């Protein structure tokens, strides 16, 4: 449908109800304005074409820190910040994209999807996604897109994966008759990052953005991860999830991120396996001397984190299902302590005097100790970026004031879990 009709649909009751589900009552109209603005800007850039609207959320990792790449378990959820786009097929062999958020405009020729030498940036990622569709046997074609995002960049809420899943939704809708599932989306996104960015990422970010809601995922079989929706609302427990931006690290962290799956897999290699999910904690402990000599001590510590973190995910899911919220918070705290002490991803050894995450965790732990309520942990990849705090609603405003006095205004974000992942908005209206 053309721009005028799409704008009219946004004023109708079904659209207003959907916007409330996606963004909450207080933010629904503000986000509807985002769509209106995009529609007008798309029309100005590409003409008045038959357009569709798309949305893909960022994600929060509740637990399962660095387990997915070794085929472990996670607990995650989609959030109320998202990457949104207006798009239309153009009948050519080119993908034309305008990204308002990052002030980028470029065109990709579908007959040449080779990556650049630097293997970085949005254009390489788009090329990787398109090639990923081809590699997995799906169709691609030319389209025009105008995209904007409020998913916080470099903040552990997967702004890149939100963008990837948004484009996957567009390509699936336009050229594959909506036949792809969210697992296929995730594998295309992983392929793009692995091959076109040389980033050793797993499937967690893409799955959490694509599926939507609060979910637990078992990656034991990465080709077909087992996804289970968890029917739980943190608001029902009068708690909120707060993400705190601790400041962007100045070091190149690619080697730090890649070292975690590499070292875990080194432990598995000692037993003739590829990933830690194929071995047991008991095996490692029984042959500890040999494993330490073969893989190194930090590798062993990271593998032990993997085993214990899997157990924590199971315990947290059980606690949520059984209404034991206090036990859930205890496990969140244990997960954070394990990441800090065993996984060791709260600061980089390459610049150990820069410890934004550990400072934020220490400040938050002092606050929680005084109030005797709440939990916190590193969030996402670690080394730099963000932490997560789970706090009672009556403490949220006080905590935000407290932490922003220390780390800077605008560093704390109150999140909610949204029920939808990567979607074509029109299909839900």
Describe the protein in words.
With 429 residues, the protein is of the alpha+beta class. Helix content is 46%, strand content 19%. It has 14 helices and 12 strands. The chain has helices at residues 3-9, 13-23, 28-46, 121-135, 159-175, 182-196, 204-211, 254-270, 281-286, 288-295, 297-321, 325-343, 356-371, 393-407, and strands at residues 52-63, 73-89, 94-99, 104-109, 143-149, 214-218, 226-229, 239-245, 375-379, 386-392, 412-415, 423-424. The longest helix is centred in the last third of the chain and has 25 residues, at 297-321. The radius of gyration is 22 Å and the shape is globular.
Helix-strand blueprint:
Blueprint: H1 3-9, H2 13-23, H3 28-46, E1 52-63, E2 73-89, E3 94-99, E4 104-109, H4 121-135, E5 143-149, H5 159-175, H6 182-196, H7 204-211, E6 214-218, E7 226-229, E8 239-245, H8 254-270, H9 281-286, H10 288-295, H11 297-321, H12 325-343, H13 356-371, E9 375-379, E10 386-392, H14 393-407, E11 412-415, E12 423-424
Parallel strand pairs: 3-5
Antiparallel strand pairs: 1-2, 1-12, 2-5, 2-6, 3-4, 6-7, 8-10, 8-11, 9-10
- Terminal CA distance reads 13 Å
Shape: globular
Instruction: Tell me the strand percentage band.
Output: 15-25%
Instruction: Tell me the number of helical segments per DSSP (H or I, 4 or more residues long).
Output: 14
- Stretches with pLDDT under 50, minimum 5 residues: none
Q: Whole-number average pLDDT? A: 94
The tally of strands reads: 12
Major sheet size, sense and barrel closure: 8 strands, mixed
* Helix residue percentage: 40-55%
What is the H/E string? HHHEEEEHEHHHEEEHHHHHHEEHEE
Return the structural class.
alpha+beta
Radius of gyration: 22 Å
